[in-house]
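Quick one: co-fold with zinc ion.
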Amino acid sequence: MTAVPRQGSAACERCGRTLRNATYELRTTDRRVPYCLPCAMRFPPMLRRSLVVCLVVGTLLTAINQGNFILAGEFQAAMAWKIPMTYAVPFVVTTVGGLLNARAQISTVAELPQ
Ligand SMILES: [Zn+2]
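Sure, here it is.
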């Protein structure tokens, strides 16, 4: 793997916006491509991974925290916001973690050989 740093500014691979300071270097099947933040937040592979984590962790936490009430058939009003929040937190944490992990400076943005 030979990384060739780009000089100057780069452009978002998806929307073409000029990337000035930070960029998000997301991995496709064969290379890493620079994205701006709005496009990085909508990167389908990252959203799929966040959704899987959300479903697995959210279900486990819901079972741990509310399982006894659900099994007993005692649905409380607070569960209407607690259960969605239990799913939302792992989704947000995974997405933010993915974005922070993909963050790169323009001078370090490099493409893998194709
Ligand atoms: Zn973009």
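If it helps, Residues 4-111 form one domain.
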